[in-house]
């Protein structure tokens, strides 16, 4: 493992996973006003992985600079402070009140990568608000970097990374040179809770602010959402007296047999 690394971690502010999602009155988007937000769970796993790499290097007298970045409105700074409290060293906030679709975020991250020159960029495999699963792959394409997606295990060596990744048929192991893009899956790790002393320390850690204009990126949406609607409510189930009764209902009522 290289003795000195810079790791950039993307952290998105999303509606908290425990919140029951509702469509807004206009039917144009999910309601986000007065709703609890938190760090995207997959990005939280990515932050934890970066910190674990930093800790492993420290045991061998190495060092890792963990930089977290978030693109979005002013409240995204709360998400960055959470990552700093977990153990990240510094943060970058690309402030924008516009809708940021995956391609726009990938372009913004590319501009940040060109400034920071990290060895590894870690992203969650997807965000739980739009479930696009696109930004990491788009960023790899824009940078022309190798990528390892859906990672469930990561091992670092000198200027290389071995990743066990989850696929439809099971798992596969790949090796890629650095710099590279890594996207995290659920089984990679269990993120730590930030302790109160670390939460207090996070308030003093550096948080740089950038604008979309400063990065010179076109973030105009390429897609337009025409309508958002809740799925139909599920109908109540029916009790049957026997297997024969069940088969009869599946044939004649549900017509699935």
Automatic annotation (TrEMBL):
Domain Electron transfer flavoprotein alpha/beta-subunit N-terminal: 27-219
GO biological process terms on file: amino acid catabolic process; fatty acid beta-oxidation using acyl-CoA dehydrogenase
Cell location: Mitochondrion matrix
Molecular function as annotated in GO: electron transfer activity
Cofactor(s) essential for the protein: AMP; FAD
Pfam families tied to this protein: ETF
Subunit structure: Heterodimer of an alpha and a beta subunit.
GO cellular component: mitochondrial matrix
Membership in a protein family: Belongs to the ETF beta-subunit/FixA family.
Record's keyword terms, sorted: Electron transport, Mitochondrion, Transport
Protein task: The electron transfer flavoprotein serves as a specific electron acceptor for several dehydrogenases, including five acyl-CoA dehydrogenases, glutaryl-CoA and sarcosine dehydrogenase. It transfers the electrons to the main mitochondrial respiratory chain via ETF-ubiquinone oxidoreductase (ETF dehydrogenase).
Protein name in the entry: Probable electron transfer flavoprotein subunit beta
Note accompanying the cofactor annotation: Binds 1 AMP per subunit. Binds 1 FAD per dimer.
């Amino acid at each position: 493992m290289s003795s000195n690394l810079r790791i950039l971690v993307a952290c998105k502010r999303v509606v908290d996973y425990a919140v029951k999602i509702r469509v807004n009155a206009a039917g144009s988007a999910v309601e986000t006003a007065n709703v609890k937000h938190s760090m995207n769970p997959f990005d939280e796993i990515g932050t934890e992985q970066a910190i674990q790499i930093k800790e492993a290097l420290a045991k061998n007298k190495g060092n890792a600079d963990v930089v977290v970045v978030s693109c979005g409105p002013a409240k995204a700074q709360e998400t960055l402070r959470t990552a700093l409290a977990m153990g990240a060293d510094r943060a970058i906030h690309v402030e924008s009140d516009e809708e940021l679709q995956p391609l726009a975020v990938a372009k913004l991250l590319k501009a940040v990568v060109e400034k920071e020159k990290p060895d590894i960029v870690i992203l969650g495999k997807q965000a739980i608000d739009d479930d696009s699963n696109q930004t990491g792959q788009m960023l790899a394409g824009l940078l022309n970097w190798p990528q390892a997606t859906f990672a469930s295990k990561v091992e670092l060596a000198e200027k290389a990374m071995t990743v066990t990744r989850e696929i439809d048929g099971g798992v596969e192991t790949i090796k890629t040179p650095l710099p590279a893009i890594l996207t995290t899956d659920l089984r990679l790790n269990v993120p730590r809770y930030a302790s109160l002393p670390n939460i207090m320390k996070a308030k003093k850690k550096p948080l740089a602010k950038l604008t979309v204009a400063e990065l010179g990126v076109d973030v105009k949406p390429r897609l337009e959402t025409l309508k958002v609607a809740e799925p139909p409510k599920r109908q109540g189930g029916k009790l049957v007296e026997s297997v024969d009764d069940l088969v009869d209902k599946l044939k004649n009522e549900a017509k699935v047999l």
